C-alpha cells in the first residue's frame, strides 16, 4: 500500500475546465517530501496553479500576487479569482461573493500559531468556513476588490446599490425572490457601470428604479443634440410644462441579458424618431434578432438618444397623453417583431 505523504493537501476550488488548484503548502511541485520546519499556510502565502497554457488564466493567477498579505489573504485571493474568471468568461457574478469582503472578528488579527498536524489544520479550516456567516461588518479597511468595484461611484448611488442588496437578501429570507440570479447580477453590474460613466455624471441621462425594483427602470434623456429640432421642442416644453426630458421605461425579464429589455417612451408624445404606437421603439437592437447579451444598457440608452434625433423626432404638443401606455406599446412591439421575423 502506498504510504500517505504527511502535510500535503491540494484542493480544487473551481470545477471549470481547465482546473485551477490551490496548494496550501509548499510541497507538491518538484518535491517528494516536505522539509522539516518548512512553513505552510497561513504562515506562508497560498500557491495557485492552473493546468492550462492559456495566457489569460496565467495572468489571472499572477494578479493574485498583488494582494497584500493579511489574515484574510485567502478570502481576498478567492474573491479576486472568482471576479476575474467571471469577467474573462462573461459570466454573471453571484451576490454571495460579496460575503468574502467581511473581515475577521476582533481578536483574530494577531499572529497565527503554527499548525502542528494535518488534522488540526483541516479542523481549523472547517471552523473558519462555518464562521463566514457570522463576521462583523467593518467600514474601515476595505478589501481591494470591493474598493475598486465601488470606485468612481457617488455616495448616494452606493447607498442605492446597498439598499438593493439588502432587499435581495430579505426577499431571499422571506422566500419571495423575484427575477433570477443571472439577471440580478448582470443588472447590478449594469447599474454600477452607469453610476461610474461620464455620460451619467454629466447629466446626459438619469436612471431611477421603479418601486426599488431592479427589473424596472425609468430613464430620463436630459440632453439631446443641441442642433436638433427635438432639442428646441424640449426647451419649449420646459417653458410650457416645466419638463425638459424624454422619459423612457425599461423593463427586464428573468432571462436578461439573453433577451433584450422592453423599452417604451412614457412622455412626451413624439412624432417621428422611430416611435411606434403606445410609445414602443422601432429599433432592431431591441428585438431578439438584433440583440446581443454583450450590449451594455448605457450603450442602449445612448443609441436611443441618437436614434430619436436621427429619425427627426418632434414633441407633439397638445396630444392626448394617454395614448402612450404599456398595452399599446406591447402590441406595437409584437407587430414589429413579426415583421422582422418575416423579413429575416
TrEMBL record:
Transmembrane segments: none annotated. Its EC number is 2.3.2.23. This is E2 ubiquitin-conjugating enzyme. Residues 115-127 have a biased composition (Acidic residues). The lineage of its organism: Eukaryota, Metazoa, Chordata, Craniata, Vertebrata. Residues 25-47, 102-127 are annotated as: Disordered. Signal peptide: none annotated. InterPro entries: Ub_conjugating_enzyme (IPR050113), UBC (IPR000608), UBQ-conjugating_enzyme/RWD (IPR016135). It is an enzyme of class 2 (transferase). CDD domains: UBCc_UBE2Q. Residues 35-46 have a biased composition (Low complexity). GO terms for molecular function: ATP binding; ubiquitin conjugating enzyme activity. Pfam families: UQ_con. Residues 182-344 form the UBC core domain. It is found in: Cytoplasm. It comes from Meleagris gallopavo. Keywords: ATP-binding, Cytoplasm, Nucleotide-binding, Transferase, Ubl conjugation, Ubl conjugation pathway. GO terms for cellular component: cytoplasm. It comes from the Eukaryota.
